[in-house]
Write a structure and sequence with these properties.
It is built from ten helices and no strands. With 271 residues, it is mainly α. Helix 3 runs antiparallel to helix 5, helix 5 runs parallel beside helix 7 and helix 6 packs parallel to helix 8. The termini are far apart. The protein has one domain.
């Protein structure tokens, strides 16, 4: 499981986040310097836990803190309608949550009592269900014209992500509630994306990328929901290793890379 998780996390840190940041209004210097944190952070994944791995992860954490600090600056400027803006703010902040868990896990420190395995999964969750999902929800909301369904998606994806985070501390049933809200939001993103594809205003590769990202969500979020329900109710569920190999791979390659790749092809104004 660790090998596959490292691949997914490396894709997130070196591919999904820097590509996604090109779709957000952030300082140009940050785009150029992102690799100074992301590359050491990715390298830390492949080292044994300890001081060296922790130091490399800390370089990535510093870059994500810089990104998170853009959120209050942006909030003061209020650049987009509120639901879309909440999605973008979530995308700016969640990599720092992931990086905090990464530093602790690479040092071998069970932060706040969470096991090292849970911390590693937290790194993945807040790169993909946090950054990528929130960013795509905001982009989809704009593409759909900020209608009622689009606004609901732009609010429920960040809301579900934060409820899942709260569930880590409150309990499994709270985490299940977050999974339900997040799943509903992601299915709305899927529905709106399919509607956009059917309008036939994009070239074929872009439609294919959007279509794949949309269809993948219908499967990957069922897996997430069933796992959260199993955790809360004590029902049978897939082992964590199988969740990484199914839900994790689908979200990383089928959803995040395809959705962000499609938006980059459309060359929109950054959110």
């Amino acid at each position: 499981m660790r090998l596959l998780l490292n691949v997914i996390l490396t894709v997130g840190m070196l591919g999904v986040v820097p590509a996604g940041l090109r779709l957000v209004q952030v300082p140009g210097l940050m785009l150029r310097l992102w690799w100074l944190g992301a590359v050491p952070g990715a390298i830390s994944l492949w080292l044994d836990r300890g001081a060296w791995a922790g130091a490399l992860a800390a370089a990535y954490a510093l870059m994500t803190v810089w990104l998170a600090l853009q959120a209050p600056l942006r909030l003061r400027a209020r650049r987009s309608p509120l639901p879309r803006e909440i999605a973008v703010l979530t995308a700016l902040v969640t990599p720092a949550i992931a990086a905090t868990a990464l530093v602790a896990e690479r040092l071998g420190h069970p932060l706040w009592g969470f096991s090292l395995g849970i911390l590693a999964l937290t790194v993945a969750h807040f790169h993909f269900a946090g950054f990528a999902a929130a960013l795509v929800a905001g982009l989809t909301c704009r593409a759909a014209g900020d209608g009622p369904l689009a606004r609901t998606a732009a609010l429920s994806v960040p809301g579900g992500t934060m409820l899942v985070l709260a569930g880590y501390f409150v309990g499994d049933w709270f985490e299940l509630a977050g999974a339900v809200v997040l799943t509903a939001g992601m299915w709305l993103v899927s529905l709106l994306t399919l509607a956009e594809v059917r309008q036939d205003g994009h070239d074929r590769p872009t439609r294919l990328l959007l279509g794949v990202s949309s269809l993948v969500l219908t499967v990957s979020m069922v897996l997430a929901l069933s796992w959260a329900l199993g955790e809360a109710a004590g029902l049978p569920r897939l082992p964590v290793s199988w969740m990484v190999a199914t839900h994790g791979l689908l979200n990383a390659f089928g959803f995040a890379l395809c959705a962000i790749g499609a938006r980059l092809r459309l060359r929109p104004q950054p959110l």
